[in-house]
What we know:
Elements lengths: L9 H4 L5 H8 L3 H22 L6 H18 L11 H23 L7 H8 L5 H15 L3 H12 L4 H8 L3 H24 L1
Amino acid sequence: xxxxxxxxxxxxxxxxxxxxxxxxxxxxxxxxxxxxxxxxxxxxxxxxxxxxxxxxxxxxxxxxxxxxxxxxxxxxxxxxxxxxxxxxxxxxxxxxxxxxxxxxxxxxxxxxxxxxxxxxxxxxxxxxxxxxxxxxxxxxxxxxxxxxxxxxxxxxxxxxxxxxxxxxxxxxxxxxxxxxxxxxxxxxxxxxxxxxxxx
Length: 199
């Protein structure tokens, strides 16, 4: 599975392919398509992996990523290189929507995989970093408990460090909705974590 994206600026994290390579990929060049996958595979895998954490293994992440790139290649001839969306934003939009669809489907089938709080405490009790690791696991569970829409907004902003405008483009919502979802997600996470510490 891909490593998380480093926490630097979004533009540096997702360098765009040059115009000639994109144009060649749009015309069907296998080499250009391979360059596109090489450039964007890591951020796509990182996003899908985080959104689907707890719902399956790396095979599921790979399947959703593969389906994302198949959709990208089917729609690539229609991508407007002179339009408002950057290629990376457009690709992440497809990955995010596909992940949200998978989240909705899996939420209906079952709840996220998780271990009980006793398992976390028992495994880490003797370790000096136990509390930090337990908090991290509890936070992951709380994030996994968010609705797909809130989870996607939170992950794009807080994990991947995207700007509000990029999140709005990816999720195809307005800026106010991005801010509202983010505030609600943060509130729900605070509530979930405070309940754990009150118990």
